[in-house]
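Standup notes, protein team

Yesterday: finished cleaning the Helianthus annuus set.
Today: Brix domain-containing protein structure.
Blockers: none.

Input for Brix domain-containing protein:
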Amino acid sequence: MARFRNKKKVAFVKPAKKQPPQNVDHVTGDKIPRSFVFSRLKLPATLKQLQADLRKVMLPYTALNLKEKKRNNLKDFLNVAGPMGVTHFLMLSKTGTSPYLRVARTPQGPTLTFKIQEYSLAVDIANSQLRPRVPKDLFKNSPLIVLSGFGTGEQHLKLTTIMFQNIFPAIDINTVKLSSCQRIVLLNYNKETKLIDFRHYSIRLQPVGVSRRIRKFVQNHKVPDLSSLQDVSDFITKAGYGSESEGDEEAATVSLASDVGRVNKASTKSAVKLQEIGPRMTLDLIKIEDGLCSGTVIFGNRWVEGPW
C-alpha cells in the first residue's frame, strides 16, 4: 500500500509593498536635492554662526549636525556624499581679505564662487525686530525659492539661476499645500552693482475682512475660558487684542479654500506677509568653474585665494 508523506505547512507571508526611494519626492517624482554645508579650514566665530544659519536655511534636506575635522579634505566629503544622496555642497572659507561662499554640484560640478561683501546673522535680524517670529515647525519643510532680476540672457546668470533652482526641491502648484509653504529664500540680482542680495523670510497668513481684534483672537490657537463672561465680546475687550484704530498694512492675498488650516474660512482669503528671519548676505559672483572646485573657468578671470 502506497504511503503518503505529510506535507509540511508553510506559513503564508504577505509580500511587502514596494517602498519608493527615500531620496525621491512622492508627489513630483523628482530626486530631492540634499546638501552639505561645511567650512574649509578654520573660520572665525561669526562665520561659524553663519554656517549654522545656512544649515537651517537648507533644512530639512541637509546635515544639521555635520561634524568636521581639520584633516578632512574635499575628497572625504565627496566620498560620503554619494551613499547619502547629497547633490550640492555649500562651502565657506575666510582669507586674509574676505569671506567666500562656494556652491557646487556633486560629483562633477559646476562650482560657483561668491565673495561675501556683507552679511548679517539670524540673531542680528531677530534682535533688530520688535517681535521676532520663529515657530517651532518653521523648518519642517524646505523653503520656496524666488529669483529676481536674473533674466538678462547672460550665460553666467543663467548658470546661477539653474544652480539655485536645483538646490531646493521642486514643487507642484497643483498639489502643494499652503500649510507646507512657511519659508521663502529670495535672491535679487542688482544690474547696476552686479551684486546678489540673499534674503530668508518666514511666511505668515492673516485673515482679511475682519477687525484686528478678531484676527488676533482667531490666530491665538488657544481655547479661552469664557465661563465667567456673559458674552464673547467681553473677552475680546478685556484681553486687549490690539486696537481698532490700527490700520492693516498692504499685503498680497491668496484664495486657497482646499487648505482651510491657514486661511480665513469666512471669505477663503488671507493676507500673505513676510518676516525676515535671516541670515542676510550680499554676494558677488566672481568665478564659475565647470568642475568641482576645479576645471575650466567659464566665467571670471579673477584669482580667488582660499583653501580649495
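Follow-up from PR in the comments: The longest strand covers residues 195-207.
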